[in-house]
Amino acid sequence: MTNADARKxxxxxxxxxxxxxxxxxxSAALRNRGSVFLAGVPTRGVTxxxxxxxxxxxAGMQVACGAVDISMHRDDLGLRSGVQPLxxxxxxxxxxxxxxxxxxxxxxxxxxxxxAMEAVLAFGRPKRIFYxxxxxxxxxxxxxxxxxxxxxxxxxTQARLRVRLAENDGGEEGIFQS
Amino acid sequence: MNDSLNIRGGRVIDxxxxxxxxxxxxxxxxxxxxxPSAGAAEIDARGLVVCPGFIDMHVHLREPGQGAxxxxxxxxxxxxxxxxxxxxxxxxxxxxxxxxxxxxxxxxRAAEVGVVNVFATGAITVGSCGEELAPIGAxxxxxxxxxxxxxxxxxxxxxxxxxxxxxxxxxxxxxxHCQDASMAGVDAMMHEGYWSTVLGLAGWPRMAEELIVxxxxxxxxxxxxxxxxxxxxxxxxxxxLRMARAKGIPLSGEVCPHHLALTDESLAGYDxxxxxxxxxxxxxxxxxxxxxxxxxxIEILATxxxxxxxxxxxxxxxxxxFGIVGLETAVGIFCEVLLHRRRAVDxxxxxxxxxxxxxxLLRLDRGTLAIGAPGDVTLLDPxxxxxxxxxxxxxKGRNTPFHGWNLRGRAVGTIVGGRTVWRLAS
Amino acid sequence: xxxxxxDLLTLSELSAEEISFILDTAAEFKGVxxxxxxxxxxxxxxxxxxxxxxxxxxxxxxxxxxAVRLSADVVNITATTSSLVKGESLKDTAKNLEALAAxxxxxxxxxxxxxxxxAERLHAGVINAGDGSHEHPTQGLLDVFTIREHLGSIxxxxxGIVGDIRFSRxxxxxxxxLQKLGAQVVLIGPPTLVPREFERLGALISHDLxxxxxxxxxxxxxxxxxxxxxxGYFPGTGEYASLFGLSAARAEKLKPGALVMHPGxxxxxxxxxxxxxxxxxxxxxxxxxxxxxxxxxxxxxxxSVPPEDIS
Lengths: 178, 426, 311
What we know:
The structure holds 3 protein chains of 3 kinds.
Chain A: E1 7-10, H1 12-30, E2 35-40, H2 44-58, E3 64-67, E4 98-107, H3 111-123, E5 128-136, E6 148-152, E7 161-164, H4 166-169, E8 174-177
Parallel strand pairs in A: 2-3, 2-4, 4-5, 5-6
Antiparallel strand pairs in A: 1-8, 7-8
Chain B: E1 5-14, E2 19-28, E3 31-33, E4 41-44, E5 49-52, E6 54-59, H1 72-81, E7 84-89, H2 100-113, E8 117-122, H3 136-142, E9 146-148, H4 157-167, E10 174-176, H5 181-184, E11 190-191, H6 194-199, E12 203-204, H7 206-223, E13 227-229, H8 235-246, E14 251-255, H9 258-261, H10 283-294, E15 300-301, H11 310-313, H12 330-341, H13 347-354, H14 356-362, E16 377-387, E17 406-416, E18 419-423
Chain C: H1 16-32, E1 47-52, H2 57-69, E2 73-78, H3 90-99, E3 104-109, H4 114-119, E4 125-131, H5 137-151, E5 158-162, H6 169-180, E6 184-188, E7 204-206, H7 209-213, E8 218-221, H8 226-230, H9 237-244, H10 248-251, E9 259-261, H11 274-277, H12 284-303
Parallel strand pairs in C: 1-2, 1-3, 3-4, 5-6, 5-8, 6-7, 8-9
Helix pairs in contact in C: 1-5, 1-12, 2-12, 5-6, 5-12
């Protein structure tokens, strides 16, 4: 969904590099630290979690992968139009034995991260929760920061930052600002 | 000389005299006269139809006792605004008009504040409960023109038979709201059919009206008293009426505008402005009624004007009272449907159904332009285009399904006893 | 698609897509019941009023629990406790509730069209919990959800509804939902209780349960009510049970995998035998569980429409 004004600030190669970098960070931090579960925030967080899982597997680290839908935990029901269909949460049944890594494409206000954390905690009591993002664009509204970030991409508040992935958007991959 | 008028140049239609030609009509001291009077006001009626004042033989004036819905004053003003010079009031007031004292009160009140002529009917039975005959003779002396339990229907056929026999003594016709209570049931709110099934509302089958029309055929034949079936709605009723009249039985029928213009599909939104008794039915019932009008089976048109307070109608469907106002839209609907869309009647016939025919049934000295008769005139523009605006109604009631409708045909002037009581502001 | 209705009044006005959307949402909410914390904050701070002018403990409890699991605040008003008894009009009662800042009103009323009446006049969302003989949308939805859960898709199934169809809002809601999703509906009962007009909606009619039973994928049994007996619609529950009751013997003729359903409460020995209600075909208890999930979905969706999107 690029429009005429969208500028590509990270190209496909840069995007792939960022994913690899994030996988490396995760590997360094979490290898041999017990069972790790990547919980992607729909929609693109889920795609990213799957790619990270593959990258980590190639690097010899096994992790499980799923999703955490935050719709039921949002704090803005009835305030915005176009409520998205619920997408379902897949988390391990014995949550207390796992470290959950919430995976998302872009971090801005921190509200999504808060909702995701609450959603995970509604399921059970995990050993630990980590938060990993591909890009941090700044503009925090809550005191929630990612533990693992691949790219720092500060952009003005009114700008839109979009990550395009082949599985979700088709066509060219990259990070676009508009 | 304000009871005198010279009405010039209109198309004069007087069915009682078989007259339909351009000409003049003169009223002198409140009665029709042969020649104009010098000081009388002049009305230029070119382009208009000049006919005897319209008679609506089915109006709920709501007084005594229900003045929040309508009063004799507001109801008669509504009649004037609709082109009616005479109306016949139904007795289902509070208390029911089953006693000469109530009839006398109504007549006095109408004389004081009424803008058009008001004729009273008396109940057939005490309280309209369908059991004991009301003092019909005393009410006849007080001036009723017919008896009816309208609002209800005498269920006991023997009682109805006795009533019809007794009325023969006074020359009074019996008007009947034809509804079999066991078939229609207490919950019935709309026509029994596809729509009542979908909407989950108890239905009022055609049979409930047709059964009573059938009993009236037999009773009119047996007693010789004219029985008039009010607000017909069902196809089968027309067939029964046709059969009876072919045999010379003194049975007559009337139709109201809404039963010619709307079907039960209108109730899909649960709008209480479509809740009436008898209910709106299907297209084939409309077609049968139109056919009955066209071939002369049905000879009278009326409104069943039934005003209610706004707060009474603005409730959930089950709780709303039945009925809609009609005086100010009737002429428009009749012209639009019968004259223009269906071409079921020509103008003289339409005028007859609103003048000569009801006058003849009720033995009124109205509905005619005959010399010496009271000078009641309706000025009609059968092609006038207008849009119904319920907020302009003279009636207290706003319960109409026709708000916003574009109609062709409207009364533009109403003259009672030589006085103009209403004129359409141009 | 996105959900744009602040009210749920009928299933007759919903598209097949909208119905499927509700069912998909309900499937997610069913999962909430399996979590450690069976509550989500979606409706936190919102007030839901159960306005039950016609009494019902089961449906009201189900809506109450649904609301509570969504973290809404709940107020219960029943006919006996409300000023409606003192003659306050429905419109004034509802306006008062809105003045108290109710966000959602769940209405059960004996007058068909009462929820429409309210919805046209209130900013609050109105959910129809049963209006006279007209519709009971959440019951229709939970029935269809249950069928979908057990049998996969609805399209192509033959679904029988047995009993007092004429006066049943459950039957009407089911007929709309099933037809829209592509099932063939068969209405079964005595001629006095199964009006032919339903054929115009596309349903088939049968007065012989034994004849059609073996072809049905689902048998949905409706409650038979005493009032109908008194009003002359059928001679007695004994005769009804022998002609239209799903006895143990009749149940032998069911297709393998066929579902037996009932909106409850059941009359054992009348609509069905106790052994059938508890037997392998019965999904009656699933209906109750699913009712909760469906109602959570409906409340969530209707509360999600911002005021500017309301037409």
